[in-house]
Amino acid sequence: MLKKRQSNSPAPRNGDAPTRGFSLVELVIVVVIIGVIAAIAVPRVTAGAAGAGEAALRGSLKTMRDAIDRYAAEHIGDLPGAKPDGQGNGAQSPEAFINQLTMFSDAAGAVSNSGGASYPFGPYFRRIPPLPVGGNAGKAGVAIDAINSPPVVLLVPAGWVYNPSTGEVIANSDDPNRDGSRSFDEF
Description:
By secondary structure, this protein is α+β, with helices and mostly antiparallel strands. It has two helices and five strands. It has a three-stranded mixed β-sheet with strand order 3-4-5, with helices on one face.
């Protein structure tokens, strides 16, 4: 004959079935397991985010370099920003560079908001992409370095540094990448 097991639970009230809660030891074990899982998962997630930033930087640089090459191909070898934009922005100015890539242009590099027969080229961007990584992350401005080849990082609030004489563009950040092997301006 089976014996009825005694329960540590309080006696049922009003015909309710007896209930048993979790002990403190069981709750502590669950919390410890969740902590171990979080300790394993968090570094993997943050490393993935750093890798995503570097991939976004590579993509933005490729897009910008391709736009510069297309502009030069359509303007008989002239690079964007190398000549005035016809809007009062002089040669080798950030404004001329941005306008010549984001507006319609003619063969001489003069720009207009509307295309047509007079301004048959471009635009090559809707807007300059923002820098996705580093200390100037989120900034879409362009600084001009017409002296150095490749350009060097400048202490200005701009996402990119461009040399209008060579067509080289770099990220305006010398922060190290996720594994420390090189800085973002070397991409």
